[in-house]
Amino acid sequence: MKHLPLILAAVALLCPRAAAGQDSKKWKPYQFVGNERYDYKVVMSNDEEKKESGWILDLRKKGAEDFEVTQSYRNVVKKTLPGPEILAGSMGLGMSPIFFLMNPAYSAFLEQLELKEGEKLSLFGAGMIKVTAKETVGGRTGYTCKFFTKQEDKDVLACEWTIDPELALPLRSVTYEGGKEKFRFDLLSYKKD
Q1: Domain extents for the chain?
Q2: In angstroms, what is the C-alpha Rg of the chain?
Q3: Which of 80, 87, 98, 142 has the most CB atoms around it within 10 Å of its CB?
């Protein structure tokens, strides 16, 4: 019985959140439905310049169990580049854009978050995700979720995503480094047929 006050306090804290959660939604990242196309503008920044490109992900249903997945990149490159660099498109990411759009490690946390302005999710003392606002990107409305890490006892913005709970990928994704934007993905359009 010595733990009864703690149990009652926990119940009291959880009850209002359960009622508040009825108006909010949760996100299921990477739950593609097929016959859909995501078209993103991608901006990579370094100290000297910004480089703009594009990334398209197209998923088509192929039978009951399969998707045909097509990715394409849109870049402007100098025609004087060596052939292999032109074929690579000089995107310069070194790996699939999906890791820069949203690191899959973060998705486990984001799918636990209630998408409602003012909600917060602590990441075991390593940081916090806060739902700060609603915004429209690429003609769709989503919730802006900001991920802050702890650095020298300060909250530092590391990433932000704008999430539409109806889509499998974020509407917007921004990765920060040293307080400046490093990678930015903005949805230009989403089509489902």
Answers
A1: 35-192
A2: 20
A3: 142
Question: What is the CATH architecture of 35-192?
Answer: Clam (2.50)
Provide the 10 A C-beta neighbour count for residue 164.
22
3-class SS of residue 115: strand
3-state DSSP call for residue 118?
A: coil
Cα–Cα distance for residue pair 73/60, rounded to 1 Å: 18
Residue 172's alpha-carbon distances to 69, 87, 175, in angstroms, are 21, 27, 10
Tokens found for residue 187: 């949805």
Paired sense of beta strands 67-74 and 50-61, if any: antiparallel
| Measured torsion, CA atoms of residues 54, 180, 96, 136, in degrees rounded to the nearest 10 | -50
Q: What are phi and psi of 43, to 5 degrees?
A: -125, 125
Percentage above 90 pLDDT, the chain: 50
Q: Tell me the one-letter amino acid at 169.
A: L
pTM beyond cutoff 0.85: no
